[in-house]
């Protein structure tokens, strides 16, 4: 029987197990943590995440979309909260288009269930990969309950062990000519749980992603199923007017929220008491190449961990599974061929994902409060309404399509130059006001067509 | 008694042991390899290296310069060998200034001797560092002879374990917010030993560094004490008209040397037979920060491994020792203070060292064969002769001074712009020919002074 090993049962690993099982492999998964379905533990990192088209596409391919649907809370746009508690809504896409807030633990558990049901899949928990043997396609695991070390051999190994991948550190990184970087950004994050109202209802509109953009830092909130919101403060660690190192006491924190996020403070006056519930965490970009070596491949964050500002890390990881699945069929499971094409095709997209993610921090914390940016978005949406085939905004290409990230980024740049030029040459605001915006758009796009 | 641990007894570790012993520390050194003074093994990497002012300064500080002097063969300039075997000499600096070819094993052995003589230093060979414990200032060592693992504790630990530092991989790299990259360049290298003549004499002028610049690749040669030369071919691994992947058979190699390095082939007609004597090796830049954590510090290649094209890796590593030594005195061995200033001061210089090294590959393989570049060098030397206080070429700042690398690089850029401008506005070649070059230089520098 064909055998495959997966290291890590996180978002990529649990999904890839389904793909591999469906292809008839005997799959062995090793996961460092206990089973999150049984233990009262966090699934790590953020508590909820934004799932968008690429994720859905990868889930759909193996029939998992329906298993996940009831976990997913649609978010149709952003709601910005300014310093005076004034709200502004900005749709993400067309009417009805949304990205979805899902619980990390929830989706991970469903994918584990699906993996176990879909074929010959065994997940070993509390098994930490500590070494790899490329030559013999083996991984070494430390059983954290018994403290014993075992070896496991298979035809092919997939490292889905996340940003701090042990397979990458202990294996790939020692391979000659393996390029690698780990780059921490100057900002960290801390989560805060905004509880539901006493009657279980939401304190904010649940169908939007909430942002308190403050220029150099921001607070965001995504709804959970139980009426609460998981809120995340992203901010520099140090050396700024507002940075984590300035918030040392209960009073510092209280005053900071009262002053900077007044509507949030009003909803959660005890925010300072909850401050230490979650740790202050750092954010890094991991870049490397090659992504495959002998019979080993890196998938997901192990290959291209990024900062979370485009809400695409999980989506990209799932897309890795989708692409690997397509290539597995295309090359008839000749893994040498599959891996070659996988890394050549995916690497530029991993790099673009990271560039897009870094850039979007500026968008979220700063530009969404900028009138010019909002007008541009409105203009873009109108263009898309009139010429849906011809114009898709960068955000839509990333979140509502499966256009490869690198292509989306390139097209996005060209479009941005084009839009900026039109905006310099025309008074778009006036055009909207006096209802001549469509005229302008038609004149441009009909001229373009010629 | 004050105690210090050094991991790695290479070029930085053996020198730093001397510094630390002189400061009254009980020093324990752990070295992975056997004692190179006893075993018939290579000291690793290149067989000889260019030692220049920064290295001498660091050696002098602890009285080691005299121990090394008799190993050192002065090289007063470069001799370029073109495709027609025509030779061009270009001095490195002023009359009498030289960089020095030294044997890696030789200088390493002398520094080990000195370390053992200079105080309470014990070097444990065949001891490989496999783990670190920051909290308790401990390192874990695998005794490669007995296969036993031991722990060693001390006041302070210095990681001098080179480009692939185990302390960095197993310790620093796991520290939150540690930035790191390992970047392999597209080129590799292979060494070739050009033997002495039968009577023991040199086949080439020993007092120069020989270069066969060929645009995208190059061969270089540095003299050894025994009449031989260590030659190194630097060339892309693949995807070029000339790259290592094209040289697969004895015939390929023979034809390549015959065609591209005819004078070399004439001296060593059996080059193809010697081809496999040394391995094909890769070249990487390692960049990281911070360089210190708790009571641990990275020194030498562990902190800033670079490509060898400026002949400065060892010199920079020795300069680390010198700077650390100065700071140790300045801060009265308060290691927190010492480490803070060490990394703040040295990091920009490590980065500059790497930028300079990368750039100098182009200089060596390509520009030294370019008439404009050679004329510029000649012009620079003349300026320096006339205004020695005011003008030092970049090469001289790097190789014949202790001006920090970052400062040298910055000044070098400004000077280059300045010289290029003068060369655009004046016919320098004609000025040399009709003996009016000094006039020009005086007119510029006197105008400058105003
Ligand atoms: C604050 C934050 C917010 C985010 N928000 C979003 C979002 O809104 N949308 C989105 O698409 N993405 C988001 N992401 C990114 C997303 O979390 C990751 O891209 C995604 O988790 C990657 O999946 P993965 O399976 O590659 O890694 P992980 O989900 O990290 O899974 C790795 C698994 O491997 C296990 N493991 C690790 N080491 C070993 C070992 N040695 N042996 C065995 N098992 C091991 C881990 O326990 C874990 O289960 C966010 C990330 C962060 C940090
Ligand atoms: C081809 C080439 C040519 C070069 N030419 C020049 C030149 O002309 N001039 C110049 O200045 N520089 C040159 N360099 C650079 C120079 O070799 C390095 O900068 C220098 O060796 C760095 O010294 P180091 O002590 O930091 O590292 P190394 O000299 O590499 O010493 C590291 C030591 O640590 C030991 N070690 C490694 N891992 C462990 C472990 N886990 N436990 C215990 N011990 C360990 C190693 O065995 C070794 O002895 C060249 C480099 C190369 C590759």
From TrEMBL, chains A, B:
FAD-binding domain mapped to chain residues: 5-354
Class of the enzyme per the UniProt entry, highest EC level: oxidoreductase
A GO biological-process term: quinolinate biosynthetic process
Keywords from the named record: FAD, Flavoprotein, Monooxygenase, NADP, Oxidoreductase, Pyridine nucleotide biosynthesis
Annotated pathway: Cofactor biosynthesis; NAD(+) biosynthesis; quinolinate from L-kynurenine: step 1/3
Record-listed E.C. numbers: 1.14.13.9
Pfam families assigned: FAD_binding_3
Record carries keyword NADP: yes
Reactions catalysed, as given in the entry: L-kynurenine + NADPH + O2 + H(+) = 3-hydroxy-L-kynurenine + NADP(+) + H2O
Cofactor(s), by name: FAD
GO function terms (MF aspect): FAD binding; kynurenine 3-monooxygenase activity
Recorded family membership: Belongs to the aromatic-ring hydroxylase family. KMO subfamily.
PANTHER family named among the record's database cross-references: KYNURENINE 3-MONOOXYGENASE (PTHR46028:SF2)
Name of the featured protein: Kynurenine 3-monooxygenase
